[in-house]
Amino acid sequence: MSEIFGILSTIFCFLRGRARNKEVFERTFFKLFENLKKLLEEITTWRQNIDKDTMITTNNTNDIEKARIKDEYSPKLNEFFNLLFQILNYIDKNKIKDNMYIDIIRHLLSQEILDLLENYINKNNSCEYKKYRKLVEKYLKS
């Protein structure tokens, strides 16, 4: 009888540990995701450009538009891509099989952002970006 109790106790502890690990993963994932959404809002917000010399207001633009037209990546856009990399890496390291988390990320990213992301990765050839490319291909390519 005590053997059965010991086995059941071990199984219960194992299951409780797995549930706790998932809870920790989800809490971290959704905090990172909230930060990613805030950054996305910042880089897609249209704002007026003011020429510092003449103080004349020019066309409205946002970080996405600048990157698309001028191939300039603002610090916020770089931050967005780096946070996206951290989230993909976090999912990968935790060996999450549930596609729900990737689907949440994919839903947030427009094709325009995915195109900029690909260009961003192509411009950088360091080892870190090669890892980034693999994660993007694994999780974000259709």
Folded structure, characterized:
The mean pLDDT is 80. This protein has six helices and two strands, in the order αββααααα. Strands 1-2 form a two-stranded antiparallel sheet. The chain has helices at 2-44, 63-70, 75-93, 100-108, 111-123, 127-139; strands at residues 47-50, 57-61. It is mostly helical.
Q: How does the major sheet shape up? A: 2 strands, antiparallel
How large is the count of helical segments?
Answer: 6
Order of neighbouring strands in the sheet with most strands: 1-2
Distance between the termini: 53 Å
Q: Tell me how many strands there are.
A: 2
Which residues sit in consecutive blocks of at least 5 with pLDDT less than 50?
A: none
Percent of residues in helices comes to: over 70%
How much strand content do the residues show? Answer: 5-15%
Query: Rg, please?
Result: 21 Å
Query: How do the SSEs run, as a string of H and E?
Result: HEEHHHHH
Query: What is the mean predicted local confidence, pLDDT?
Result: 80
Number of domains: 1
Structural class of the secondary structure composition? mainly alpha
What global shape is seen?
Answer: globular
